Amino acid sequence: MRVCVLVLGLVLILGLALTVCMARSPYQAVLQHSRIRGRLQG
């Protein structure tokens, strides 16, 4: 029983971490693109 709760908690934490990383990626890509364009255009 204790192992099941531990495994379930670990899966939930990993799922949340993956969701946060996936949600941040597009935003980071837009920021990077803006920085590059700003550098090129002055």
Question: Explain this structure to me?
Answer:
The protein has 42 residues and is mainly α. Helices cover 95% and strands 0% of the residues. It has one helix and no strands.
Topology record:
Blueprint: H1 2-41
Strand content: under 5%
- Indicate the low-confidence ranges by residue numbers: none
Mean pLDDT: 84
Biggest sheet character: none
Helical residue percent? over 70%
Treating each run of at least 4 consecutive H or I residues as one helix, how many helices?
1
> What is the count of β-strands?
0
Q: What string, H for helix and E for strand, traces the elements in order?
A: H
- What general outline do the C-alpha atoms trace? rod-shaped
Secondary-structure class = mainly alpha
Distance between the termini: 61 Å
Integer-rounded radius of gyration:
18 Å
Which characteristics define this entry?
0% strand; 42 residues; 1 helix
Short description:
With about 40 residues, the chain is mainly alpha-helical. The chain has one helix and no strands.
